[in-house]
Amino acid sequence: MLISRVYLTLCCAVVAAAVGAYLHVLWNIGGFLTSGGCMGTMIWLLSTPPSQEQKRVSLLLASALFQGASIGPLIDLAIEVDPSLILTAFVATSLAFACFSGAALVARRREYLYLGGLVSSGLSILLMLHFASSIFGGSLALFKFELYFGLLLFVGYIVVDTQEIVERAHYGDLDYVKHALTLFTDLAAIFVRILIILLKNSAERNEKKKKRRN
């Protein structure tokens, strides 16, 4: 079944991303080059014909590895603050993905596809806000809004993308590698935002403890 192959390939991509993050922790390789490598391998994958299956799977794993290395600096920060936050963020991301992707699978066909326009519009708003804050300067309230609104958007994308995969399969689109890449992008975005939220909450708790002691 197509969805089983998509989920299996997605799991392999998650493992590759974990390896990439670990390599950053060891050798500090994450940064602009790995981000560029991630985008480059994604474009290469999407431009490669579906018939070259093995090459496309390798490109997906390479892209996931670069993505993991790019997230590496955030992982480093979490290790310094509280290493358990990484596991908490991973479990929360996995649960969110399982719940919303599962809900999209058991729902009626095309039931949530209408959300595609809403989340796309929301993403455009988020990008404009980010662009404006980078030029005119941001605030803590705006940062929080971008963080939580972005989390909500990518959770919505999980639902939409899962139903779109099923719908495309009905019309003969069995490109499981591309579908796995789509879901992996959603998963990575959710993980990063949850981890940032956990780090922020941890920092606020530590600040409150210091004030009480003083």
Automatic annotation (TrEMBL):
Q: What does the record say about its membrane topology?
A: Multi-pass membrane protein
Q: Which UniProt keywords apply?
A: Membrane, Transmembrane, Transmembrane helix
Q: Where in the cell is it found?
A: Membrane
Matching entries from CDD domains are given as: BI-1 (cd10430)
Annotated TM spans: 7-23, 29-47, 59-79, 85-106, 113-136, 180-199
PANTHER family from the entry? Answer: BAX INHIBITOR 1, BAX INHIBITOR-RELATED
Q: Which family does it belong to?
A: Belongs to the BI1 family.
Its name, as the record gives it, is Bax inhibitor 1
**Protein species of origin:** Stylosanthes scabra
